Amino acid sequence: MTPAPDAGPDAAGAWDDLLRAEFARAAHDVTPGPAPVAAVVRAGRARRRRRTVALSVLAVLGVAFAVAAGTSLGRDPHPAAGLAAPPARPATSAFAPTAGPPPPAVPRTSASFSSGRQIPTPVRTVAPGERVAAAPGWKVWLTADGKHWQGGEDPLEQFRSVTDGNIDLARPGISHQGEGAFHSGLYYGTRDAGRVELVDDRGRATAAALLELPGRPGWGVWYTVTREGGALGLRLYDRAGRLLSELPPL
Amino acid sequence: MTHAAEPETDDGFAAFATAAWPRLVRTAQLLTGDFHEAEDLVQTTLAKVYGRWRRIPAEGVDLYVRRALVNNNLSRLRRRRVAHLLVPVLPEPARHRDAGHAEHVEERAVLLAALADLSARQRTVMVLRYWDDLTEQEIADVLQCSIGTVKTHARRGLAALRAHPRLASGPAPLPAPAPLPGPPLRTPYGARP
């Protein structure tokens, strides 16, 4: 019944007809129930409200993050402090969409090394279990075991382990858990993380905020909020702007 | 506080969702291979569409909804991929669903088994081409890629389907194409009333 695969244009047309019929048959093999319009509208309204609140609060969060990063500078100098110039993007742009290639690496000169000047670290250091308000309705916290987060429509705490053997802490890597507009994940295999970016299919990058436990355990958590869905890739850079790991979009 | 007046502000969304629901679920069923995931996917997609309903031009509703559905499905697959990477053994419900999925494929349609072996984008192109009956240009618009990319996905997807043992030499002869109940292939999801 199936057309011969190499019988020329007629066979190609027969395959098209066959596949159209098969797709239609498979599609009509299910009988959708009535449209849950009320539930959809309710969820849509909630989503619209969250987006409105999120957009208006993001700027505040950005400032708060900058302040937190700045205040953490004094008590938690990065191991690389004093080595190089600060990351090209200030912490205040943690949520701001950026475009174009990553900023060029800044050479680590002996002059800057000898200056002894501490540089702003892009990584916020948090205590184990310290709840971080990552976005409206979303909390993220770290323990020695891994990343915890909670929010959105699911009230349950979620967890990704760094100790169960599923990630290789010896090599730079990154993971992604996306829930609507809120994105987060682990980065690992480096004590010199400088930036994590989400990159959409048009090449537009959104920088993420970074969290680590005291002592630079070699892994951390990133999070950010995007305005649109779609295919998103991930890039992890070190503080000199070098690409350490990449998770391409599907 | 009452929301009695709010439906009036939906500007036809409820009517659109009601009309589009069956076909969207069927499209999602072909994209996901699982009826329940298909309904969840469409519900999530429509909720997102509702959030931007007033800003979607009437003539662009079909494209917007298709694009949202496809993108949400790709996001769903990415989340599942990450979960598979991070969780050595899936929780029981997930494992059970996957096993059941395979059985349903066996029982329901040979086609879904063949589609399951395609990449996500190949599968999407096949569904948009053979179920939604879109042209290559329309598929490129939905996927926001070039026509060349669509052609590549279509060629590889078609070759894989042709070579798939269940389609190429399935035990049950495939029925001749016949008029099917429901909307014609070319029917869009519906226009904004």
From TrEMBL, chain A:
Residues 79-98 have a biased composition (Low complexity). It comes from the Bacteria. The chain crosses the membrane at residues 52-73. Keywords: Membrane, Transmembrane, Transmembrane helix. The keyword Transmembrane applies. Residues 78-122 are annotated as: Disordered. The keyword Transmembrane applies. This is Uncharacterized protein. It comes from Streptomyces hydrogenans.
UniProtKB/TrEMBL annotation, chain B:
InterPro entries: RNA_pol_sigma-70-like (IPR039425), RNA_pol_sigma-70_dom (IPR014284), RNA_pol_sigma-E_actinobac (IPR014325), RNA_pol_sigma70_r2 (IPR007627), RNA_pol_sigma70_r4_t2 (IPR013249), RNA_pol_sigma_r2 (IPR013325), RNA_pol_sigma_r3/r4-like (IPR013324), WH-like_DNA-bd_sf (IPR036388). The keyword Ion transport does not apply. The keyword Transcription regulation applies. Residues 167-193 are annotated as: Disordered. Residues 172-186 have a biased composition (Pro residues). Residues 110-161 form the RNA polymerase sigma factor 70 region 4 type domain. Keywords: DNA-binding, Sigma factor, Transcription, Transcription regulation. SUPFAM superfamilies: Sigma2 domain of RNA polymerase sigma factors, Sigma3 and sigma4 domains of RNA polymerase sigma factors. Pfam families: Sigma70_r2 (PF04542), Sigma70_r4_2 (PF08281). Residues 22-81 form the RNA polymerase sigma-70 region domain. Belongs to the sigma-70 factor family. ECF subfamily. PANTHER family: ECF RNA POLYMERASE SIGMA FACTOR SIGM, RNA POLYMERASE ECF-TYPE SIGMA FACTO. NCBIfam families: SigE-fam_strep, sigma70-ECF. This is RNA polymerase sigma24 factor. It comes from Streptomyces hydrogenans.
